[in-house]
Write a structure and sequence with these properties.
- With 313 residues, this protein is mostly helical.
- Helices cover 51% and strands 11% of the residues.
- The chain has helices at 6-22, 27-56, 67-94, 107-111, 118-148, 151-159, 169-174, 176-188, 220-223, 266-283, and strands at 3-4, 195-198, 203-205, 208-210, 215-218, 284-287, 294-297, 299-302, 308-312.
- It starts with a strand and ends with a strand.
- The structure holds protoporphyrin IX containing FE.
- Residues 17, 20, 127-128, 131-132, 135-136, 139, 191-192, 195, 255-258, 261-265, 268-269 line the site of protoporphyrin IX containing FE (HEM).
- It comes from Papilio machaon (Old World swallowtail butterfly).
């Protein structure tokens, strides 16, 4: 009866996101994982918290180097240092070596492109890794937690998967219960519960005239919890996605944003979550005692380490 917790989720997600970004099979990373993953995860968390406090608190940091400002800078430096190390290792490891991994085409080609400025390349990789770790780890915890309250849906997922351990892409596409479970988790507990935009031109919203430069937050997460938008809005009901639950406003579920600035990690994340869930459900059911405490860390995050039980079927 293994149990799983946040640190392991973050490590798993760290491996997956770095694998995507640095294009490697990650054997080299695993030896180094625990120390660096934990330091990076902690720095990313501190960074998100400092962002939250600078958005919503008194902006004293604009006038003096407050504690908040120092935390922000320190976390940014740690993130920068660890990811720089990983990038240099990825670059030196692959110089001249043939990579069998298709992901190389995406990121290492960007990193080794002499026409791009080195600082821009590094900043892009840092952005991707920091944007990907905490979001994906939280989403996985929320999904498993919500499913722990729906043993019947877990049975359903299992029944849609092949009995053998081997999983093909078609098996994932055929298992609609996995897709519905994930979508419903994103509706009820979206780790990014709002979208932010700075207006580049004036606009009128619900009768309010907003000048260019206004900072606008669209609280999609709050809208998804309103009865006028979703029937039994506060319940985790994956079955609503098969139809028959009115009102139902799927357009409000925007966990990855919308438009030009939409999350570039969306496809990767969906595949990763579907695959992880399928692999888990093939072998175990998930249990959790009590209610999960959630806090707003700029992202929605579990308040403390989460212990979920994975019980052999
Ligand atoms: C469950 C996981 C994730 C969630 C919920 C999520 C959500 C979001 C959201 C809501 C945005 C803002 C979109 C907008 O304003 O319209 C965003 C932006 C972004 N995400 Fe993700 N994300 C996730 C994972 C990832 C991963 C794995 C990566 C990279 C591998 C990533 C990279 C980025 C980047 C670089 C941006 C900024 C895009 C821009 O400003 O143009 N995200 N994400």
């Amino acid at each position: 009866m293994p149990s799983t917790n946040n640190v392991r989720h973050v490590c798993l997600v760290f491996l997956a996101v770095c694998g995507l970004m640095l294009g490697t099979r990650l054997g080299f990373l695993e030896r180094w994982m625990s120390g660096r993953a934990a330091a990076l995860a902690a720095a990313v968390k501190a960074h998100f918290r400092a962002q939250r406090d600078s958005y919503y608190g008194a902006p004293l940091w604009k006038f003096a180097p407050t504690n908040l400002y120092r935390t922000f800078v320190k976390s940014e430096e740690t993130i920068h240092m660890i990811i720089s190390e990983l990038m240099e290792e990825a670059m030196s490891r692959t110089t001249g070596a043939a990579q069998d991994d298709g992901m190389r085409e995406i990121f290492l080609n960007i990193l080794s492109n002499p026409e791009l400025d080195a600082r821009d390349k590094k900043a892009a990789v840092i952005d991707f890794i920091t944007a990907g770790i905490e979001t994906l780890a939280n989403s996985l915890v929320f999904l498993l937690y919500l499913l722990s309250g729906r043993p019947d849906w877990q049975e359903r997922i299992r029944s849609e998967l092949p009995v053998s351990k081997r999983l093909e892409l078609e098996d994932l596409s055929a298992a609609t219960s996995i897709r519905d479970a994930t979508k419903e988790a994103f509706r009820l507990l979206p780790t990014a519960p709002f979208l932010a935009r700075l207006l580049d031109k004036p606009m009128t919203l619900a009768g309010h005239r907003l000048p260019a430069g206004t900072f606008v937050l669209a609280h999609t997460g709050a809208a998804c919890r309103r009865e006028e938008n979703f029937r039994r809005a506060r319940e985790y009901l994956p079955e609503r996605w098969a139809g028959g639950f009115e009102p139902h406003s799927p357009g409000l579920v925007a966990p990855f944003g919308r438009g030009r600035r939409m999350c570039p990690g969306k496809r990767f994340v969906e595949l990763e979550l579907h695959l992880l869930l399928a692999k888990i459900m093939q072998q175990w059911r998930v249990e959790f005692d009590g209610e999960l405490d959630i806090q707003f860390d700029f992202l929605l995050s579990p308040k403390s380490p989460v212990s979920l039980r994975l019980v052999e079927w």
